[in-house]
Amino acid sequence: MSYAELQVTTHFSFLRGASSAQELFDTAKLLGISAIGVVDRNSLAGIVRALEASRATGLRLVVGCRLDLADGMSLLVYPMDRPAYSRLTRLITLGKSRGGKNNCILHWDDVMAYSEGMIGILVPDLPDATCAAQLRKLAHVFGDRAYVSLCLRRRPNDQMRLHEISNMAARFRVKTVFTNDVLFHEPGRRQLQDIVTCIRHNTTIDDVGFERERHADRYLKPPEEMARLFPRYPEALARSMEIVRRCKFSLEELTYQYPEEAIVPGKDAQASLEHYVWECAPDRYPEGLPPDVLKTVRHELDLIRTMKYAPYFLTVFSIVRFARSQGILCQGRGSAANSAVCYILGITSIDPSTNDLLFERFVSQERDEPPDIDVDFEHERREEVIQWIYKTYRHDKAALCATVTRYRAKGAIRDVGKALGLPEDVIKALSSGMWSWSEEVPDRNIRELNLNPDDRRLALTLKLAQQLMGAPRHLGQHPGGFVLTHDRLDDLVPIEPATMKDRQIIEWDKDDVEALKFMKVDVLALGMLTCMAKAFHLIREDKGEDLDLSTIQQEDAATYAMIRKADTLGTFQIESRAQMAMLPRLKPRTFYDLVVQVAIVRPGPIQGDMVHPYLRRREGKEPVEYPTPELEAVLGKTLGVPLFQESAMRVAMVCAGFTGGEADQLRKSMATFKFTGGVSRFKEKLVSGMVKNGYSAEFAEKTFSQLEGFGSYGFPESHAASFALIAYASNYIKCHYPDVFCAALLNSQPMGFYAPAQIVGDAIKHGVEVRPVCVNRSRWDCTLEKIGSTGRHAVRLGFRQVKGLAVADAARIVTARMNSPFLSVDDIWRRSSVPTEALVQLAEADAFLPSLELERRDALWAIKALRDEPLPLFAAATEREMAAIAEQQEPEVALRQMTDGHNVIEDYSHTGLTLRQHPVAFLRRDLSARNIISCGEAMNARDGRWVYTAGLVLVRQKPGSAKGVMFITIEDETGPANIVVWPSLFEKRRRVVLGSSMMAINGRIQREGEVVHLVAQQLFDLSGDLVGLADRDVEFRLPTGRGDEFAHGGGGPDSRDRPRPVVPRDMFTPDLHIDTLKVKSRNFQ
């Protein structure tokens, strides 16, 4: 018999369904179910995933949705045709607009207004008066499209309930149909479903009660079992297929139409595009297009005409043109940089006359997919571009894609542990030991945390957390992926308001949009563009020079010399540990070297074993041999090594006779071969094609295996070139204007790899004078101040460095001092009218010291003397004589000042950096007594020497391509040290690696040229040494860089939850402490 399960809930009914669409469809196919009706709650967020599962299994998908109305009525609705689907998406959009983020408010009147063309199935509770009223309404609105669901609840009188509902449905002429209200694909998921129910209700498994399912029957069952369960209602069972036959709509019917706002009046899209191309060409080529570029442009325009992509190019062009008109730096990247058309229109910056581009990497006829252009904008001004898009294309035609926030190891353990009632300290201990998670957590790791791996509830936590990993938690907002349409966007997909004001998002993410071949424009944010824009402004204002990305001196020898020394902290793309280690080996001297540098430190070239051959050939240690001139033409620039995706494609085209489209399909199949296995058919064509063209079978096999090894992570040359442009510009500014670079980088935070502490420290090492935050001299941003008549400038830290200080309060202070500087705390308070909370924040940041010579405690004491509200001006004038100020009338108190170490800790706590001594400098005598040398001494040691050093932990990285090796950067007063931790040591000392603020390392120096690493043999946690630094029992707040994968989203524990370190020595001295001060306006507790 045939049977369709029409009430299936996937895990896109967040924290309700316990299985993915793929799991459900795979199981349904094995069970012989004919079709699946996916009805997630008030949402179509998972319907495209269901479509892909349907495509993969060949099972029919019935598109549907469960509507939970405000009055408690629940209804399954299925669009029968394309117009009905649009009515459903508009209905959900209406509910989301009322309910806001993650909520949907709908009423029966709304269903009535949008029900045409839909099948409606009532999900009843009890056969009572309420059910009768609902059936009456359903029959009236849906007519012969009205059904009622019969579903077992495994409770007493279940059969009587079904009998009464069936009779009641017959009375109102509503047909019955069987569903199983499926929440998971197989019975083993019952426990996970209980857990997500607990998470949803914010309770534990012991207290959840009847909120959880009362039985384990909510899994897929074969048709034979469904017939056995419902022997009295064969017609209701058969109606499942009746509904499938009536619902002819498929998501494949959705067609995307490009917007037309950017079209020139009187011209079609293609003519408009060609108009702009020829109009903009003289800007790029004042002396005329070179013949080869002209040929390329005509080829691209012909392909764009064939694929009907002109509206897309026009849309992106209009966005970029607007940004440039507003002085917003922007640059296209990715595969779009392969396009000469994009270059001429100003979308990208890679000149096709000087770079060997491959347009088929961007657009190909065989691929038949919309192009994808990523454009980066200044991250602080991108919102201007986004709001212009909404204004131009209107909110009903423009929305951002969603992102699916999924469970990772740490979050899964937290939520599952809480649901199972584990103590909070156990949950913290488990999550703090998590870096990443493979198939299982070794028992020894559990025992290291002083936990019992045999504990039943603990073992269940780990098991269920493993199952929960990867499941969607909720929808988020894509950084900038816009979907723009010609007609109403909510005809295609439901739209909901975003958390951020004046934004809205669709329910599908970028993968869903790509699966349906919709156009997406990526309006992305790039912090380095903001930094560059601010740097150019500072150079103009303070140095009187006019500089921008297009006028920066190219191929500057001093800049490349700095890059070769790996002196690239804070710059773009080449600032990470891995990049810095590669720079002295690759030794970039030209722009193309920089392109290679950006691309080579990627998983692809590493996994494809291309890095070392390239470096050996570059250093002349290995000969470069090309079997044929054709191969030399393709791989000559990369010394015979296919480092880029375009290289792989050109090898296939030139050596094996692939067309451009086939080569792009090869690239795509390599990118997914681990999942689809589709690369094998290309292997035969590539190998046979190369053999046919005169290459040996052995060489052809080797070529293919090399391409296969890096295809999954290959970096497009065009993308690397786009990034290299910005990388070079940032290094040029750092080399020639280090003061400007420091100020601009601080003014662009948060961004980049390093924290302000490391940025300022690096600037000081480059001879830049950095001055502290000052109430009389600082502005919101960091600024440049002339150093006498030397022509040099110092960097004055801005109020933005003061943690917690509002921009509005800083603006009041700057405005109030325009005519004369402040004379006292009271003077600031009265003239600026800022709240005392703001003054406290400035005092904690020591901003009163530079000009008013008030130490932290003196400033805080003066703030304590202030009244609740400033007096009226006339009363204040009467009270004060001349420059007399209120706090001078307070009794003088000789406050004991903080120690130097305490001041350093307060600096880090309230500004994130210090201009005083490095924290480790205060511990140097004690460290030396333990034979611990400085980081600088360790990094200058000879190769093979055993050393013992220590420092603050700045960055921890564990790249997926490094086979479990962890890289750590520590720092002391002499500079940073690079540490390598092998997987075996990491597993033994996991708690030290993940929990230390300060770490000691005993190991051997490994030196290869200018690249120096300390290979750790022993690791020790010295976090306790930092406790005494502040003369108080609190943890030192670690100035970790943003690149620290452990503290910044790499799967490690939340630093706020880290247990306090063991205190090996208590250096507390009884003293007057700022924590003991009482201020009316601020609680210092």
From TrEMBL:
Catalytic activity entry: DNA(n) + a 2'-deoxyribonucleoside 5'-triphosphate = DNA(n+1) + diphosphate
GO cellular-component term (any): cytoplasm
Residue ranges, annotated region (Disordered): 1040-1067
EC identifiers of the protein: 2.7.7.7
Pfam family, one: DNA_pol3_finger
Gene3D superfamilies: 1.10.150.870, Metal-dependent hydrolases
Family affiliation: Belongs to the DNA polymerase type-C family. DnaE2 subfamily.
HAMAP family in UniProt: DNApol_error_prone
Function description: DNA polymerase involved in damage-induced mutagenesis and translesion synthesis (TLS). It is not the major replicative DNA polymerase.
Protein's name according to its UniProt entry: Error-prone DNA polymerase
Encoding gene, per UniProt annotation: dnaE2
